[in-house]
Amino acid sequence: MSRPERAAPDEHPSGALEQIIAQRVREFRLAKGVSMTELARRTGMSKAMLSKIENAQTSCSLSTLSRLAETLDVPVTALFRGVDAEREAVFTPAGRGSQIVRRGSDVGHLYQLLGALHGEHKRIEPLLVTLTEASEVFPLFQHPGTEFLYVLEGVMVYGHGRARYEMRPGDSLVFDGEGPHGPVELLELPIRFLTVTANGHLD
């Protein structure tokens, strides 16, 4: 039987590393539905030691991290996820969204992209859509993913499949992008609405 893990000489939290490890250990333990008492039994560590780790009150040795990772069935590197990582962010000042060409641009729909991340994080696409006197109805958009629409200005009838929704400022709609959708009637111009399309899984 393994002896309980003894605390390292330096039991003062030393910063971000301990905080990240504490968060990851707690996150994986809870995800597996394992109590701290049960994790202590499985690892041969003391509950007091695990409490110190989950509260970022001690620095873990590599052997301790390896034992935790093996018991939680995750790579050791998973316990460091988020340490010193550069996280991408895109800021778009008011009125500075990039104008892009999309299906519907040729019938007067103005699209402004409000920002997008790259690679695996490119999961959502926020657009500001403006319809004016020059715009025509164009109700046959179809695309993968889920779309959220929020009306900022004007009044329109928006179609999705066979359904029709009269939408005014403050109204919103969430729908499956695979269904044919788009403005059916432009009742009060100008019309501005925000759409956010989620591509694939967000978990």
From TrEMBL:
SMART domains: HTH_XRE
Record's keyword annotation contains Methyltransferase: no
Entry superkingdom: Bacteria
Pfam family, one: HTH_3
Domain HTH cro/C1-type, residue spans: 25-79
InterPro entries assigned: Cro/C1-type_HTH (IPR001387), Cupin_2 (IPR013096), Lambda_DNA-bd_dom_sf (IPR010982), RmlC-like_jellyroll (IPR014710), RmlC_Cupin_sf (IPR011051), TransReg_Diox_bact_type (IPR050807)
Keywords: DNA-binding
Residues in coiled coil: none
Name of the protein described by the UniProt record: XRE family transcriptional regulator
Organism: Amycolatopsis cynarae
